[in-house]
Hints:
The structure is a homodimer.
Chain A: H1 13-16, H2 19-38, H3 45-57, H4 62-69, H5 73-85, E1 89-93, E2 101-105, H6 107-127, H7 133-149
Antiparallel strand pairs in A: 1-2
The structure holds a DNA duplex.
Amino acid sequence: MPDLPPGPASVHNVLMNHTGFLISRMGLVAAKQFGERLESLGLTTRMWGALNVLASEGEITQHALCKSIGMDPSSMVSTIDELEAMGLVERRRHPTDRRAHALHVTEAGMETLARGREIARTAQEELLAPLNDEEREQLHALLLRLAMATRKEPLAVAPR
Amino acid sequence: MPDLPPGPASVHNVLMNHTGFLISRMGLVAAKQFGERLESLGLTTRMWGALNVLASEGEITQHALCKSIGMDPSSMVSTIDELEAMGLVERRRHPTDRRAHALHVTEAGMETLARGREIARTAQEELLAPLNDEEREQLHALLLRLAMATRKEPLAVAPR
DNA sequence: TATTGTTATACTCTATAACTATA
DNA sequence: TATAGTTATAGAGTATAACAATA
């Protein structure tokens, strides 16, 4: 009885035949690699996702942000807490609804966001290194069509 | 101030521009959909991954199985416990090493595996529904090249 | 009566370290 | 001294329910 299977460890050929497994697997790798790079900014993938959407939407409520990225409201509290503690986001008064906050991205938040986007480019370059430009566009287009079909799935930005 | 961003909820346009995000996102969707379907067999994605590799490798040790799918040995214990409780796998005596087990897939295990593969086909059909056959092959080939480049990453079969 | 944000809680998944019995 | 399997434990990450303030 062979004690170890032949070939490099960690992923088995049998599983590689399934596209769904490959997507799941590469999704974990991508999230992990990006998350490790984001640590240099003191950000998690969840914080980055929230900051990113917030900057593009302007001042919105936590509730709206939750719906926008599919995060649970109770999880959003701690995410915004962390961003606020770092001075990247402020909870400002909502002009009309005294229950709600108007989430505001600070100047420091915009700077961190810019550096995060640079990191995202680097991480993407690392992830897609085996592919040329045309192939990268192909992959993106194919994934985008899949994503558009499952847009309503209430999944958070990052796996962990 | 707009209370909700325009368009359908749960995933934001800004994030859709990143291939890494799309892969991560679709990986979660794929794993979730497959996991829900596997419940009908009483299996988790982890159990299915272990059973699948085990059947293709014959009788190997838990240690070898761990290396083969990138699962932690301590997590493997409960995974095999569950498979054994369902009568799909047996811990048999290793012929030469009294510390180790020879993991054996039972006949019931092979039958469950066959049904699992049918479920995998169905789930894949659902996931890749927006793509035609040629596009599915393209996507698979592109992901496979990425996966081969990161084969050594010690990540488990399924995110949760 | 419903909604926003918050807190407390529980549950899952995973990783770490220590332990045993063998090698 | 190292290895296979196990156990116990702790740490993320997430989901659920209840709550106060306000609509």
